[in-house]
Design a protein that fits this description.
Blueprint lengths: L13 H13 L5 H30 L2 H27 L8 E4 L1 H4 L9 E7 L5 H17 L3 E7 H10 L1 H8 L2 E5 L1 H16 L3 H19 L17 H15 L6 H4 L5 H25 L11 H7 L10 H34 L2 H10 L3 E2 L6 E4 L2 E4 L4 H4 L3 H12 L2 E2 L1 H8 L7 H5 L1 H11 L5 H10 L2 H5 L1 H4 L15 H16 L8 H6 L6 H10 L10 H16 L3 H12 L3 H8 L5 H11 L2 H16 L8 H18 L8 H15 L5 H8 L4 H6 L2 H17 L4 E7 L4 E9 L4 H11 L4 E8 L4 E9 L5 H20 L4 H9 L13 E5 L7 E8 L4 H11 L2 E11 L2 E10 L8 H15 L6 H4 L29
Parallel strand pairs: 2-3, 7-8
Antiparallel strand pairs: 1-2, 1-4, 5-6, 6-7, 9-10, 10-12, 11-12, 11-15, 13-14, 14-16, 15-16
Helix pairs in contact: 1-2, 1-3, 2-3, 3-5, 3-12, 6-7, 6-8, 9-10, 12-14, 13-14, 14-18, 17-20, 17-21, 21-24, 24-26, 24-31, 26-28, 27-28, 29-32, 30-32, 31-32, 37-38, 37-39, 37-40, 40-41
Length: 949
């Protein structure tokens, strides 16, 4: 990490700066505060101008290390000028022997634009008060200029004593570098530190640094493939490289990373990787600080496009500029992981050789590697597979695949030396290797292992084997998808998908996925399912639809893996249709018979249905934390059961009218203890759609709810219940019917911060609306969630009755939230009369925001459309809302002009081109507070922006 041979003189005119400061001293009145106030604008201008030069040079040469070195040099000069001024003009006596040193990252000669400055003021053993005052003068001026300064004022003896007891201080002093003042003190500290602190304590320091790294990774998200990575603290980030250098410096007493090549720890190629990774990560970090104007360390979505532009990335077919930039970022993070592993292997080897005396001999004997039966080329080294002979891969390249297979069979971890040897032998995986029957047989055995296939696949990927063995997989290694839905890179997502499948396969997912857990043992062809799960996104990043392209890849790859033509076609079909079940379950009305018949026509067999269900579950679960919930599980189960019934010939052939009549009779019988008059009255309230789509248990609950409201004389009433397993809270609203009712309910939910997942809209025969709104659950404890549900219900009642004004409550919710412009989602409206026998289906796709559902439903009401049901699905920043509608006389919308008018009316709503909400305030409210009979007649509900109802 030595500074490059850079020319710094053009950054800052030091002589001119010293002259300006000297002029202040010569014109000074002797007043300390006045002197500081005169120095301040001079120093601020010098710092700002020099840092601007560093920024411009970053754009010129693109080197992050050069930028960090330049900023560090600028800081050195400013501190030196201030220190010399203090010692010469302010405290000229008794300050000889004082020294200023840089520690921590600054001690390495690197600083990011927004970094803190860590200083150590070294005092001689006998320090007078003038020295302390000089230190204060320097610090106050640095703070006044605007720098964040971390500092300590100590003697050499204090530094040594504290270093022995405090690992943080020890690490900081490890990086001590003289800036100005008495250099002899810094030299003494460095010498004594090497002699008294580091000698014999390397194992302790290494263990502490590695434990610190693991905890840091845990806090930052323990994956180097998170799509909003922390460049400084995250896995594969700058701190990991810095940790390697700390350990190298402490253990090998080196001053620069190229010394590690001389010592044989790193190869020349690995050293170049270290330099490239360091330079790239510094470039990203410096650009982030300059762009945001603050020490931002997380590479958030909204700044990724600008950073990509600053670094000069261009779009390519199938990949945007930002996706190419982030793929490079994750490949660099992977390189950092490789270097960490190689470095750890060298340390372990060194420590094993260094174990002293008879105790070391006994330890080596007790921990002696053991033979692995049936695998003579490998040994078991304390639970880790290692190579019996360093040249085993050159003798037989197939041993690379056998290494992972044997590790899987014996449940072994990997010795760092073994993985280092794999990484250095990747060129042996050539076309002959890939076409080898044995290599493909072994790989298929690893993939379908009943132990931990995800663990082995991840190690294969980290070592670079997966991408070499399957070049199609290599294309998606470290590839990100620029959206808020996917949390991981594509390769990490695929491996996590296999992990979820393995969990289901072992019967460990009964609580989360009862249906998948039940049908998994019925799937006889595990190989086909595992291969489909691993490959389902393998064609991401291409111009062609990734499902279609992925099926083509499967048809080419599966025969090589040893799958039969029948298995190959099944894998290809599963990949081609891997989004089908998820999209139908989440965006279609599952109570509409046409939905089920259309889906069944595409699936065609129970074997396909079972495999598609399991693949869909694995895919959603592996997207990221919080994406899967019980409601999605319930939708998939409903779709599965309805389709299974049809495919097995059990779907009812009885007419709709007959089935509705039977359902009404069942409801009458279920209302036990009611008078015959009440039974007839409350059964006759419901039309066919209600009787055929609502469970009998819910019909009885609704009947009791309506009767209780009638007895209480309530024209407006709400009822709440929650489903913990389904992760859904259900709010039932009874109200006088009105075309804009759903819009107002959706707006009230938005104002209360509730995300609507589904809505069922029914009209009773006496002119009332019975709407069931399903919202995503937030709290794990039922009592807490019921209180939340009651709060949302109260908001709905307040808005419907006119006690609260909808635009105002939504405006309060939206206050301070910025419009999301990071992700371009092209607004799209699709109208179909083929998806339902009774309804026109309108599907809306656009960027999500607060109050969007309220605005869309208001627009549909303005168009004289009657919404029968709605499906609300959010994929990160994108929403797909589906509405089943009729015109006001209950017919489909078939007129093309009218369909075009619907699209024209919805498009401005989707792109948020609405009237100002304040102008709508008088239009959107009921006429009188407390009244539930006069509902709003306004044109549109227009709340401000962002996330959703």
């Amino acid at each position: 990490m030595a500074k490059a041979d850079l020319a710094f003189d053009d950054l800052l005119d030091i002589d001119a700066l010293k002259a300006s400061c000297k002029a202040v001293a010569e014109a000074g009145s002797g007043n300390m505060l006045e002197t500081r106030s005169k120095l301040l604008p001079i120093l601020k201008k010098a710092s700002a101008d020099a840092r601007e030069q560093a920024r411009l040079k970053l754009f010129e040469d693109g080197s992050g290390m050069n930028c960090a070195n330049r900023i560090s040099w600028i800081q050195d000069q400013l501190i030196s000028v201030i220190f010399d001024f203090a010692r010469t003009h302010v405290y000229p006596k008794d300050t000889n022997g004082l020294s200023v040193a840089a520690v921590g990252g600054y001690g390495r000669g690197t600083l990011a634009p927004g970094s803190d400055i860590d200083l150590l003021f070294l005092l001689p053993a006998k320090a007078g008060p003038a020295m302390h005052k000089a230190v204060e003068f320097v610090l106050y001026l640095l703070w006044d200029v605007g720098f964040k300064v971390g500092h300590a004022t100590r003697t050499v003896e204090e530094c040594i004593r504290l270093s022995k007891s405090d690992m943080t201080i020890r690490t900081a002093i490890l990086e001590t570098r003289h800036i100005c003042g008495d250099e002899a003190l810094v030299t003494e500290l460095q010498h004594r530190f090497d002699q008294e602190v580091t000698t014999g304590t390397a194992p302790e320091f290494i263990a502490a640094k590695l434990a610190e790294r693991d905890e840091r990774h845990r806090k930052a998200g323990d994956s180097r493939y998170l799509v909003e990575p922390n460049v400084k603290e995250g896995k594969g980030g700058l701190r990991d490289l810095q940790t390697l250098f700390w350990i190298a410096k402490y253990n090998y007493h080196v001053r620069d990373t190229d010394d590690l090549v001389r010592l044989g720890v790193l190869s020349r190629h690995e050293w170049r990787l270290f330099q490239k990774a360091d330079d790239f990560l510094w470039a990203v970090r410096c650009h982030m600080h300059y762009l945001t104007g603050k020490p931002e360390e997380r590479l958030y979505f909204d700044i990724q496009p600008e950073i990509a532009k600053s670094l000069g990335y261009q779009a390519r077919p199938g990949l945007s500029a930002v996706e190419r930039f982030m793929k490079h970022y994750f490949l660099v993070a992977k390189d950092v992981g490789d270097l960490t592993r190689i470095f750890a292997a060298a340390l372990e080897d060194q420590q094993a050789k260094a174990a002293p005396g008879i105790g070391g001999m006994l330890g080596r004997f007790a921990n002696r590697p053991r033979k692995i039966p049936g695998a003579s080329e490998f040994i078991d080294d304390r639970g880790r597979i290692a190579l019996a002979d360093p040249g085993v891969f050159k003798k037989d390249p197939m041993s690379i695949m056998r290494l992972f297979h044997v590790a899987d069979l014996n449940g072994l971890e990997f010795h760092p030396d073994a993985l280092k040897a794999v990484t250095r032998s990747l060129s042996l995986i050539d076309n002959d290797f890939r076409e080898s029957e044995e290599a493909n047989r072994l790989f298929l055995s690893i993939l379908t292992s009943r132990k931990d296939p995800g663990f082995i696949l991840r190690r294969m990927n980290e070592a670079g084997v997966l991408g070499r063995f399957m070049p199609e997989f290599g294309k998606i290694v470290s590839m990100m998808q620029f959206n808020m839905y996917h949390h991981y890179t594509v390769d990490e997502h695929l491996i996590r998908t296999v992990e979820v499948l393995s969990e289901i396969d072992k019967g460990k997912a009964e609580e989360i996925h009862p249906l998948a857990n039940k049908i998994m043992p019925e799937i006889e062809d595990r190989q086909t399912l595992y291969v489909a799960v691993l490959l389902h996104d393998i064609a991401k990043g291409r111009q062609e639809d990734h499902s279609v392209a992925g099926a083509k890849v499967a048809r080419k790859l599966c025969p090589r893996l040893g799958l039969s033509p029948k298995q190959t076609e099944m894998v290809a079909w599963l990949i081609d249709q891997h989004l089908l079940m998820s999209m139908v379950a989440q965006t279609r009305d599952l109570h509409d018979r046409k939905t089920i018949t259309d889906f069944a026509e595409k699936v065609q067999s129970l074997d396909r249905l079972k495999m598609l269900l399991v693949l869909t579950i694995c895919d959603i679960r592996a997207v990221g934390p919080g994406v899967w919930n019980g409601w999605k599980g319930q939708l998939l189960r409903t779709l599965y059961y309805e389709t299974e019934l049809l495919l097995s010939g059990g779907f009812s052939q009885v007419s709709r009218k007959e089935r509705a009549k039977h359902a009404a009779e069942q409801l009458t019988l279920a209302l036990e203890g009611w008078s015959q008059k009440d039974q007839r009255t409350y059964t006759k309230l419901h039309y066919e759609p209600y009787l055929l789509s609502v469970d009998l248990e819910d019909q009885v609950r609704h009947a009791n709810f309506i009767r209780q409201a009638d007895k209480s004389g309530q024209a407006l009433a709400t009822m709440v219940r929650t489903h913990q397993f389904h992760a859904i809270t259900e709010i039932t609203v009874l109200s006088p019917d009105h075309p804009r009712l759903l819009s107002i309910i959706a707006g009230a939910c938005a104002a209360a911060g509730a995300n609507i997942a589904d809505a069922q809209i029914f009209t009773t025969s006496d002119g009332r609306a019975l709407d069931t709104i399903l919202i995503n659950r937030e709290f794990p404890i039922d009592e807490d969630e019921m209180r939340r549900g009651a709060t949302i219900s109260k908001m709905i009642e307040d808005v419907l009755s006119g006690r609260k004004r909808l635009p105002e409550v939504i405006a309060t919710r939206s206050k301070g939230k910025k419009k999301n412009k990071t992700f371009p989602v092209q607004p799209d409206v699709r109208i179909s009369n083929a998806l339902s026998n009774k309804f026109t289906v309108i599907e809306v796709e656009c960027l999500d925001r607060i109050g969007l559902l309220a605005e869309i439903t208001a627009a549909l009401s303005d168009l004289s459309l009657d919404i029968q049901s709605a499906r609300i699905t959010t994929f990160g920043e994108k929403v797909i809302d589906t509405f089943y509608v009729t015109d006001l006389v209950g017919q489909k919308v078939t007129n093309e002009n009218r369909q075009a008018n619907i699209v024209a009316r919805l498009k401005p709503v989707m792109i948020d081109q609405q009237d100002d909400p304040k102008d709508q305030a008088s239009k959107d409210q009921p006429a009188a507070a407390g009244s539930v009979t006069t509902l709003p007649q306004s044109r549109s509900i227009v709340p401000p922006k962002k996330a959703r109802a």
